[in-house]
Amino acid sequence: MENVRVFLSWEDKFDPKKPPFCLMCTDTSLDVVTVLRHYAIRWQIEVGYRYFKESLGFDQYQHLSHKGIERFWTIQFLVYTFLALEQAKEKRHSPSLALGDMVRCIRKDCLGQLILYAYEQGWAQKPLAEVLKNLRLSS
């Protein structure tokens, strides 16, 4: 490639025994600090995409119309806002709780509630067909 700058960086200080962190930039007019600032912002965007794709399953969404795209972004915004609010509540107890951790906590809580419901229905000797219907797992 022509006109490319490659930056090598180590976490604290240069250590020939540790591999460097490498960045490549095609805008040769940018200085090192600007490239690192842009990368820091881009990193947050990429992490957000990873959460939406891997943790929330948004990678399977099909965009067929302009209205569908608007709905997709609205759903993503609402999900992200919900997760951020839940994360803020939990940060008092776990300051290092990441958004992906919050997704796992919510899923674990939902699974626990489902198991509790099934247990209570079994204890009350409810017919399986009725329990499945209430869970909308059968018609």
Blueprint (SSEs and pairs):
Layout lengths: L4 E5 L11 E5 L6 H24 L10 H25 L8 H25 L4 H7 L5
Antiparallel strand pairs: 1-2
Kindly summarize this structure in a few lines.
The chain is mainly alpha-helical and 139 residues long.
- Radius of gyration from the CA trace? 23 Å
* pLDDT < 50 stretches: none
Task: State the share of residues found in helices, binned by percent.
Answer: 55-70%
Structural class: mainly alpha
Lateral arrangement of strands in the main beta sheet: 1-2
Bin the strand percentage.
5-15%
The total of helices stands at: 4
Quick check: average pLDDT? 85
Order of helices and strands: EEHHHH
N/C terminus separation: 60 Å
The total beta strand count reads 2
Largest sheet: 2 strands, antiparallel
Specify the overall morphology: elongated
